[in-house]
Structure formats: C-alpha cells, structure tokens
Design goal:
about 280 residues, mainly alpha, MetI-like fold, 15 helices, cell membrane, transport, MetI-like_sf
C-alpha cells in the first residue's frame, strides 16, 4: 500500500500524540504503582538493595497492611479526618459562596479592593499564624479537640474559595437573575435558585479543594492535637510509622495508597467541572 507524504505526516502526528499521552500516563500512574508494590512487599525484599525495586522478588505479604490497620489507629484517624473535612466544607460553603456572590455583584473600586484584600489573606503562611491561633484555641478551651481544626481551617479555605466563587459568579450573566426577579423572586431567591445551580462547577471545586487541603494539612493538626485518638491521618501516620531512624515503608505506602486513591478517583470523575471551576468557567 502506497502512502503519500500527507499520510506519513498524519501517521507521525498520531504516533507523536500517542507517545506523549503514554509518557504522561506512565508518569502520573508510577507513584500509585510504587505505593501498591511497596505496600505488599516483604520487609526483607524492601531492605535488600540487590533486589529489583520494581518487582516482587519475594512472595507478596499482607503484613504491612496488618500493621497499619491493627497496630495503629489508622481507621480512627481516617474517620477524624473525614469528620473535620465535612465540617470545614460546610463552613466554607456557608461563608464563601454568599461572600463571593456579594463581591461579584459589588461594582466599583471597593469591590475590587475587597476581593484583592480577601485573597491576600490566603497568602499569609500558616507558620506565622499558628502561634496566635494557639492562644485563641487555649482561651476557648479547645485544646486537643477536633473542633479546634474546624475553627482554624476555614481561616485559609474561606479567603481562597471566596475569591474563586467571586470570579465564577462574575461569569454568570446578570440578565438571568434580573429575569428571575421579574418573575417574582427576591434577590436571595434569584441567588439560591439561579446563580448557585449555574455555578455548580465552582462549588464542586470548593468542595474538592477544601477536602484535599484538610487531608494534607500538618502544622495546625500537630500543634492543636496531642492525643493519638484525636489525630488526623496527616499527623497520625508519620508519628506512629516513623520511629527515630526506622521507617515502616510498607505500612507508610499502604496509608498513602488508601488515602490517595479515593481523591484520585474523585478528581478523575469530576475533572471537567474541576478545571472549569479553577478557570472560572472559561473552558465552557
């Protein structure tokens, strides 16, 4: 079969495209493969430098998961993290969504300055704030309580999510809300029944961003929580599975795998809406 130069170019373009996608896929999936194989590797297989680190040189074992699930309070830490995450998501949505809408509809110089000021508060490093926050938590009697994290985490989720929702609400035409108000809805009714459903991508972005941040935050959780039963997963796992210079690599990778896979699946299912939220709807 004779191929024209155009056909060769088209075939080369497809081959290049496939190669780039394959390389990117391998790059993204390799950490999960590494966590998976390390989770089920025998300790003697892990510490022997002569063995191939990418393959099972000794029969796989469940001992690493046994240590993680039965010798630590990993399940309790996961439930703590989930409880804090749900509470912080609710607080963030209740504050950031109406605040973002208000700033989006506030015209003039003051609206822009307020928006910039709110976003700048998100840029303050947590290492600067955890000392004054400790004083506040102590005065409220919330030491060693998960409620301390529910109180503190919105301080850096609300500013960013407010700025994010403000940009998204600006992409919603005002004509839609005005038409709804002409049909008898109040301003709040138009916001609740028109603006919020149209901005579902932005709201989903807020939920995913907040949950991810709660699961990975370390400084505040380490500072405010002292009892192991109250730890979140980001503090409990390194505290109990890193003992001096001894690293329980198999159990550590098992914890990372259990925590990261649901988040990866969540991102994968809602990637279009998530990207649309961060780009303020411009990809629609």
């Amino acid at each position: 079969m004779h191929m024209t130069p155009t056909s060769w170019k088209r075939l080369a373009a497809r081959g290049g495209h496939f190669g780039i996608v394959a390389a990117f896929t391998a790059f993204c999936t390799f950490p999960f493969y590494w966590m998976l194989i390390t989770t089920f590797k025998d300790i003697h297989d892990l510490i022997n430098t002569a063995n191939n680190p990418f393959l099972f040189n000794i029969a796989p074992t469940l001992d690493n998961l046994r240590v993680l699930l039965f010798d630590t309070q990993f399940v309790r830490w996961m439930l703590n993290t989930l409880g804090v995450g749900v509470a912080v998501v609710l607080v963030t949505l209740l504050l950031a969504v109406p605040a973002g809408y208000s700033l989006a509809r506030l015209s003039g110089r003051w609206g822009r300055q307020l928006a910039i000021g709110i976003f700048l508060t998100y840029l303050i490093p947590p290492t600067i704030l955890f000392i004054p926050f400790s004083r506040i938590i102590g005065a409220l009697g919330l030491q060693d309580s998960l409620w301390s994290l529910v109180l503190v985490y919105p301080s850096f989720t609300v500013p960013f999510c407010t700025w994010l929702m403000m940009g998204f609400f600006k992409a919603v035409p005002r004509d839609i809300e005005e038409a709804a108000m002409m049909d008898g809805l109040s301003r709040f009714g138009a916001f609740l029944k028109v603006a919020v459903p149209v901005s579902s991508a932005g709201i989903l972005t807020v939920v995913i961003f907040t949950l991810t941040l709660v699961m990975q935050e370390f400084i505040y959780a380490l500072t405010f929580i002292t009892s192991s039963s109250q730890y979140t997963v980001s503090v409990g796992v390194p505290t109990f599975l890193v003992r001096g210079d001894v690293y329980f690599w198999g159990s550590l990778m098992g914890a990372c795998l259990i925590v990261s896979v649901p988040i990866a699946v969540l991102y994968n299912f809602f990637v279009d809406r998530f990207v649309a939220g961060f780009t303020v709807g411009t990809v629609k």
